Amino acid sequence: MKGCRAGPSRGLVSSSRGSVGEGDLARGSRPARPPRSKAPPQDVTPPPARAEDAALLSGLRWRPGSHVPQLCGPWQSLPGSPLPFLLLEADVDKGSTSPPTMKLDIQCEQLSDARWTELLPLIQQYEVVRLDDCGLTEVRCKDIGSALRANPSLTELSLRTNELGDGGVHLVLQGLQSPTCKIQKLSLQNCCLTEAGCGVLPGVLRSLPTLQELHLSDNPLGDAGLQLLCEGLLDPQCHLEKLHLEYCNLTAAACEPLAAVLRATRDLKELVVSNNDMGEAGIRELCRGLADSACQLETLKLENCGLTPANCKDLCGIVASQASLNELDLGSNPLGDAGIAELCPGLLSPGSQLKTLWLWECDITASGCRDLCRILQAKETLKELSLAGNSLGDESARLLCDSLLQPGCQLESLWVKSCNLTAACCHHFGSMLTQNKRLLELQLSSNQLGDSGVQALCQALGQPGTTLRVLWLGDCDVTDGACGGLASLLLTNRSLRELDLSNNGLGDPGVLQLLGSLEQSGCALEQLVLYDIYWTEVVEERLRALEGSKPGLRIIS
After folding, report:
1. Strand partners, 356
2. pLDDT digits (tens, 9 = 90+) for 473-529
3. Measured in whole angstroms, how far is the alpha carbon of residue 169 from the centre of its chain?
4. How many domains does the chain have?
5. Which of 30, 61, 177, 284 is 20 to 30 A from 312 in CA distance terms?
6. How far apart are CA 309 and CA 336, in angstroms?
7. Burial level of 232, CB count in 10 A (0-12/13-18/19+)?
8. How far is CA 455 from CA 482, 494, 531, in A?
9. 219-265 pLDDT, tens per residue?
10. Dist CA 405 CA 414 (whole Å)
11. Which CATH number do you get for residue 105?
């Protein structure tokens, strides 16, 4: 079973702060960002206390800063309630008169029988229930099904990374087939659901017209299981909008039933089938379905699906004709410059309204980058572009920077991680950043920029009027020698909110220089990522003190 990824070892000092997983920083695709702290809600009236609720809440553990103590004021001083991490939280919109959304959110905890007995009444009441990686098996699923039948308020259920198996999933789905069920989002990712367990899916989708999101990734459904799922998706009572099927052992044979769904449904907005070996023939069939589609698909993710340059011609027509499509993810497919040349006419078409294009690890070189620069200069709709993991080189960086200065370019996020860039490109990026007021995020990690390259960037970003908010410089051969410039930048730049310096050769002297700036009231930075940076207890004490004095600052290590 795939458990939650443990934080990395700190080496000299073990840190309990949030961590960014190795995969998040190494992948070409966008990593999930840790959530920012939220201000506590104001003027929240606690519910009336009941004896049975007090007994129940006494066994819960609350995250510091969560809304529970305010919402559950009558019980916040109960003994036996340690505060290590979130289990119960309420989302409150300060300006809303609606009651708060109550959430039960547990991750990475093996639940004892006593703990399970405490939680079952909450599963019967709360609108959002997440029990991810909690060691649940089929044995618990009968209880879950019974609790769900008693909960007419449920809108979201997540049981990710639990070994439920076909039998357990069946019991859970039976619990959702109540006439009063109004669930909108269901996540059964990595729950050991197989083809044999998919027979119940058509009936479930037919009986849950409120269901909008279904996450079944990391389950070995296979083509036969997918066929059964599609039977449910074709039912007129099904109004699913988002379907995630990553790592489901799908092949080209799965694309025909998926294409049939695309032709028939008007509701589907997001389809994720990344990391399935569909191949050229399968993707071509999927594109045929999209070409005749009744739906208004907005997001299509085909990362690592065995696409070839020939498929780019198929996708060209889709991009040109589907004005609703605003995100296309094609990463980790060997498209090459030839594929990009086939795709670009569609991207340039007036009918294309694409906002996000992910082309990480697609075997693109300077030639393909030159074609993409034409898109950047002409398409004002394009806001995010990832070229991470392609061998572009410094000349491509120059072309990209020139394009970013053109009036027609409205790009806000550029990812050129692991693109064989050197310090020589930093002059171009620096010059561009002093003039471009639209780019908000620049990902330069895993390039050999060195101290000289980072110093050039700092000099540019230290000038008045720059607007970049997020800068990634992880694994860029940065040493303590660049920290003076970085420390000065943190005091002079008023726009930068997030800085990643992970996997660089920083030691105590460099980190202390950074902390010196972060301690100043004039520093506007909100998040600093220092994954795989080693320091001594002296630095750790300064970090603890800083976190106490500036609660709005998040340091991830």
Report:
1. 327, 384
2. 999 999 999 999 999 999 999 999 999 999 999 999 999 999 999 999 999 999 999
3. 25
4. 1
5. 30
6. 7
7. buried
8. 6, 18, 21
9. 999 999 999 999 999 999 999 999 999 999 999 999 999 999 999 99
10. 13
11. 3.80.10.10
